[in-house]
Amino acid sequence: MSRGWHKFGANTEYVNTLILDDNLEDTSDWRGDMLNAVTVTMTKRLALKAGLKWLYDAQPAFEAVPLQDALGTPTGEIALVELDNLDTIFTTSLVVNW
Questions:
Q1: Where are the domains of the chain?
Q2: 3-state helix vs strand vs coil in the chain, percent to 5
Q3: What global pTM score does this model have?
Q4: In what order do the strands lie in the sheet with 46-57?
Q5: What DSSP designation does 73 have?
Q6: Model confidence over 56-74: pLDDT tens digits?
Q7: What is the distance between the alpha carbons of residues 66 and 77, in angstroms, rounded to a whole number?
Q8: What is the torsional sign of CA 71, 75, 79, 83?
Q9: What CA–CA distance (Å, rounded) separates 8 from 27?
Q10: DSSP state of 97
Q11: For residue 30, which of 57, 9, 51, 61 has the smallest C-alpha distance?
Q12: pLDDT (tens digit, 9 = 90+) per residue, 17-46?
């Protein structure tokens, strides 16, 4: 795990966290989880935080999708579709300090 932190001026803070996981039995099967976030203090009690989370999986899971014929009728068969390697999540938060 790697964590970086930097303060810009009196009101702004940047955080970066990186986590890498490896499968020792299959080294091509690894995952990464990185978070970038900026927090801006607006008042003594309120702050606004925006973050971007990156989730990477070198060998993503599969999703079962039911097949349909040309008329849209389910055939009863299922196809496996590989999910994306990279997912991104954007968050915003209002932080209240007591």
A1: 2-96
A2: 0, 70, 30
A3: 0.73
A4: 2-8, 12-22, 30-41, 46-57, 86-96
A5: -
A6: 999 988 999 999 998 989 8
A7: 6
A8: positive
A9: 38
A10: -
A11: 57
A12: 999 999 899 988 899 999 999 999 999 999
| Cα Rg of the chain (Å, integer) | 21
- Nearest CA to 58 among 18, 28, 19, 24? 28
Q: Please give the full DSSP string across 12-64, using - where no structure is assigned.
A: EEEEEEEEEEE-SSSTT-EEEEEEEEEEEE-SSSEEEEEEEEEEEESS--EEE
Token representation of residue 19: 């986590």
Q: Identify any residues that bridge with 7 across adjacent strands, giving them in sequence order.
A: 13
Residues 83 and 86: their CA atoms lie apart, in Å, by 9
89 vs 64: CA distance, rounded Å: 23
In one-letter notation, the amino acid at residue 77 is: E
Counted residue by residue, the chain has a size of: 98
Q: Are the C-beta atoms of 25 and 17 separated by less than 8 Å?
A: no
Q: What is the number of alpha carbons within 13 Å of residue 67 lying toward its C-beta?
A: 9
Q: Which two tokens stand for residue 11?
A: 């009101």
Residue with tokens 């810009």: 8
